[in-house]
Every structure is written in structure tokens, then in C-alpha cells.
Specification:
The chain is α+β, with helices and mostly antiparallel strands and about 260 residues long. The chain is about 25% helix and about 40% strand. It is built from 6 helices and 15 strands. Strands 1, 2, 3, 4, 5, 6, 9 and 10 form an 8-stranded mixed beta sheet that branches. The longest helix is centred in the middle third of the chain and has 15 residues. Bound molecules: coenzyme A. Coenzyme A binds next to strand 5, helix 3 and helix 4.
Length: about 260
């Protein structure tokens, strides 16, 4: 069988069971999260690799909200019988062609360094695949999914980076909103916020949100801002947050995502 014998096509409802079976064979938790994601976020942007009449692989993209053409890679899996024949690379190259037609600027992928007691690092092949097509590691969050299991985020520029344009974010006020538990994690929360008025939240307001997180048994709280929203630095520092990563050119070229973390001991 040659890569040219395979067909790459949009995922249909009838493909979902076969896709989930491939994912389940690799990891039970990924199977459940993938099933939820197809159910709640739909099949738009998702593709399957077919050999004859069988689904042998899956990949896809989801748009990052409030960004200039930034995307996240979605579940990317190949049936175990078909690995090691450049089909993973083929799926990603086909997906990049589709993304370039959409004028996608940047693609991120989130993965884990989970070590299975029997099988070792189950995402290492995927990480090697990402690196082989040009992804660069941008952020590592230790103890993210579970204690001892980090989140790794890789980024790929799909177009030459352009000079930054000026935006008006730095004049806008920031209001804290709800805490929510981050999907796929155990007791790790993120704090929502919105632009409103002219003032920035205070350290005391943030400390109240952290008290709420403690009551919910949170292990960590994350919050992220565009890199030009500098008025948040002081209240974040005063309430005990530490800078923990930067996603380069996340919102647009020259406008990064600054990530901050508060670890509850
Ligand atoms: C990740 C996956 C799709 C890769 O597919 P694949 O067809 O086996 O990979 P390819 O043959 O296309 O390999 C492409 C590149 O990845 C790297 N790679 C893949 N498997 C590797 C391995 N076992 N050892 C070292 N490098 C490997 C190589 O750099 C390779 O390029 P090269 O051969 O030109 O050096 C497949 O291994 C898989 O389904 N893994 C389990 C699912 C998974 O972990 N998904 C990611 C969830 S975040």
C-alpha cells in the first residue's frame, strides 16, 4: 500500500465510530474527550484518511476565537497497523494545504508528556511528527493534566510573520469573570475576563477569585492576556501569579498570548 492509495476527505457522521475506535485503542481518556469534542464542537474542519473503504486516520483544525486566523490542531491519530509509513506526515501536509487556502497564519498543538507504566511515552511519536513538519515547542506547563503530567504546546507559523500593527487594547479596562475547570485536567482552573470600562481589576479582587478556587480544590489557576495589556502585570504579581509561558503571535503577528499561573500548595 502506498500513501497515494489513500484518500483524505472531510469527516462525515458515518466515520465517527471508526475514528473513535482508533483513538480508544491508544488512550481511553482521549477517546472520551474526543467523543465529547465531536458531539459539542461538531465535525467542521475535521478530516479522515481512508484506505479502500476503511477509516485509517483522523486529523483536523479548530479556529482559535478572537484571533487573526489562528488555529489549533485537533485529534490526530492513525490506526496502529498503518503507523511508520509517512501517513501521519501526509495527513498533516494535506491539512496545511487546506489551512493555507483559508489564509491561516498560525497553528498550535497541545499534547502531553504522559508516561504509561507499560508503554512509556505514548505521545512521543506524535511529538516527533510535529517536530518533523516544523512545529517548535513554545510552552511547557508542568503538573497540568495531572500531577506529574505536563502540557506541551507547539506552534507553527504557516505564513511569513508580518510587522506588528498597533492596537488599542492597552487603554481598555479589564474585569474578572468566572472560574472554570479546564477540560482534560484534574482540578486545574482558568479565570475568564473581559474588556470593560477603563480600570483594571485589583489584586484584592483576584485574591477573592483565588479563595473561590481553593474552595473548589483547585491545584492551579491560569489566566492569559494579549501581550499589549500591561496593566494586568501589577495586580497579577501582587496576588501571587507567576508568568508561565508565551504563545508567540497568538492573536496576530506581533501580538502574543502571555500566560500566568497561580499554584495552590
Ligand atoms: C502520531 C502519528 C499520527 C504519526 O503517524 P505515522 O504515520 O506513524 O508517522 P510518519 O510515518 O508520518 O512519521 C513522520 C515523522 O514523525 C517522526 N516519527 C513518527 N514516528 C516515529 C517514531 N516511532 N520514532 C521516531 N520518529 C518518529 C519521524 O520524524 C517521521 O519522519 P521521518 O521518518 O521523515 O524522520 C501516529 O504515530 C499515531 O497515531 N500515534 C498515536 C496517536 C497520538 O499520539 N496522537 C497525538 C495525540 S496529541
Amino acid at each position: 500500500m502506498q500513501p497515494s492509495d489513500c484518500n483524505f476527505r472531510p469527516m462525515k457522521r458515518r466515520h465517527i465510530d471508526a475514528v473513535l475506535k482508533i483513538i480508544e485503542a491508544h488512550d481511553e481518556d482521549d477517546f472520551e474527550y474526543a467523543r465529547d469534542s465531536y458531539e459539542h464542537s461538531g465535525r467542521s474542519g475535521q478530516y479522515v484518511l481512508m484506505y479502500e473503504d476503511a477509516v485509517i486516520g483522523v486529523t483536523g483544525h479548530r479556529r482559535a476565537p478572537d484571533t487573526d486566523n489562528t488555529f489549533w490542531l485537533s485529534w490526530t491519530y492513525l490506526d496502529a497497523d498503518y503507523r511508520g509509513r509517512k501517513l501521519g506526515k501526509l495527513m498533516l501536509e494535506k491539512l496545511f494545504d487546506i489551512l493555507k487556502q483559508k489564509e491561516a497564519r498560525k497553528l498550535f498543538v497541545s499534547t502531553s508528556d504522559y508516561i504509561d507504566p507499560q508503554r512509556g511515552s505514548i505521545y512521543l511519536d506524535a511529538i516527533n511528527l510535529y517536530k518533523s513538519v516544523g512545529f517548535k515547542e513554545e510552552v511547557v506547563h508542568p503538573d497540568y493534566y495531572n500531577p506529574g503530567e505536563s502540557q506541551l504546546i507547539y506552534g507553527l507559523e504557516l505564513q511569513p510573520v508580518q510587522p506588528a500593527t498597533k492596537r488599542a487594547n492597552n487603554k481598555r479596562g479589564i474585569v474578572l469573570e468566572e472560574l472554570f475547570e479546564i477540560g482534560e485536567t484534574e482540578n486545574v482552573y482558568a479565570a475568564d475576563w473581559c474588556f470593560s470600562g477603563r480600570k483594571c481589576f485589583t489584586a484584592d479582587q483576584m485574591k477573592r477569585l483565588l479563595d473561590d478556587a481553593r474552595e473548589r480544590n483547585a491545584r492551579s489557576v491560569f489566566i492569559s492576556f494579549p501581550s499589549d495589556v500591561r496593566k494586568v502585570f501589577k495586580p497579577l504579581e501582587e496576588s501571587g501569579f507567576q508568568p508561565c509561558g508565551i504563545l508567540e503571535n497568538y492573536f496576530e503577528d506581533g501580538l502574543h498570548e502571555y500566560q500566568f499561573r497561580y499554584t495552590i500548595s
